[in-house]
Design brief:
By secondary structure, the chain is α+β, with helices and mostly antiparallel strands. The two termini are 26 Å apart. It has one domain: TT1751-like domain (TATA-Binding Protein), CATH 3.30.310.70. It holds the Pfam family DUF302.
Length: 150
């Protein structure tokens, strides 16, 4: 019983982030999908990051008469951080810039999902686990998504 309580405390302290075996990190957001993405954009632009695209999957589905619920993909980055990864392994460009998906799940909760940069890039073979840019990417994702998570 003490072990379960300890795990619960650790999960709460971690911002309720849930990482699956596939390297996807999920957090519950405090606001709607649109509000959450707006907050992310504002914070990222304020920190000097480039917002390359905001893809509205929900609107795309609606345009063909279908419904996937509210879902937006934010594509962002900083060439000073991403370029060294691409130099280490050109295939990193397939995964960069970074992406965060904000969506409404089946229960109506707003969820944030992103892939762990270390898992994502080190599996390519040319990126070392101790590459300094991985810590920057990981820290930025945790910081920005943590600020809008519950």
């Amino acid at each position: 019983m003490k072990i379960l309580a300890t795990v619960a405390v650790i999960m709460t302290m971690a911002g309720a982030a849930i990482a699956g075996d596939n390297g996807i990190i999920r957090k519950e957001a405090a606001a709607s999908v649109t509000e959450t993405v707006d907050q992310l954009v504002s914070a990222m632009e304020g920190a000097g990051l480039n917002i390359f695209a905001r893809v509205d999957h929900g609107a795309g589905a609606a345009s063909i008469g279908d419904d996937v619920g509210a879902s937006q993909l934010l594509i962002f980055g900083n060439p000073k951080v991403g370029t060294p990864a691409i130099k280490d392994d050109p295939v990193s460009g397939l995964f960069l810039p970074l992406k965060v998906l904000v969506y409404e799940d089946g229960t109506g909760k707003t969820m944030i999902a992103y892939e762990d940069p270390t898992e994502m890039l080190t599996r390519l073979g040319g990126v070392s686990e101790d590459a300094p840019y991985l810590a920057v990417m990981t820290g930025a994702l945790a910081k920005f998504t943590g600020a809008v998570a519950q």
